Amino acid sequence: MKRVEEMNYYELLNVAVTASKDEIQKAYNLACQTYQEDSLATYSVVSETERMQILQRIEKAYRILMDDRERAKYDYRIGLADQRRIQEKQPAMMVAQGEEMKGRYPTSSSRGLNLSAHNNEAEEAKSSEPPPDISDPHYLKKLRERKGVSLQEISEATMISVHALTDLENGEYSKFPGRVYIVGFLRAYAEYLGIDFQQAKAHFEILYGASNKQKK
Known about the structure:
Helix Hairpins, globular, single chain, 434 Repressor (Amino-terminal Domain), 11 helices, 216 residues, mainly alpha
């Protein structure tokens, strides 16, 4: 698990190397909310000195990544320039491949399929199910799936990577930089889904405590 000072600026803001300025702005806003003075995510987790140091590093990361010239220099200095160029080309290639596939294979709409009735029935069945127990390792995933929301949707709205959201749902807490990040991401996840953050946090505390006991 990396310490904050060991992360590069992209890791610190939890954005891709190819992140747009809009994505960086949203990630910066979320990071600032996570480390603001009255944030529950940082309460009793980091000291005031540590919180201020992290905020200073976040500010510097934001300033560098929002400036095209400074960002290019930074990418070159840490060896990410080539990686960024390669990844920036991938979306265009995927679009071209997608258009080619559309020509080969008809979509569900072109075949005249109507799935709305099936989806409505499935949604009604889900709403009648009892809520999952917070001690269930798949508690978050079950709540999300019952609402019919994909991880990609949450990622686009919260600017948290799909990989991080998957780790959050699976209780892979050792992959996060620290507890404060987990709680901050959990808050954003809960707010987007419209679920009780305190319940989600209680679920996290149960799994987090269990994983720590196993390590001992």
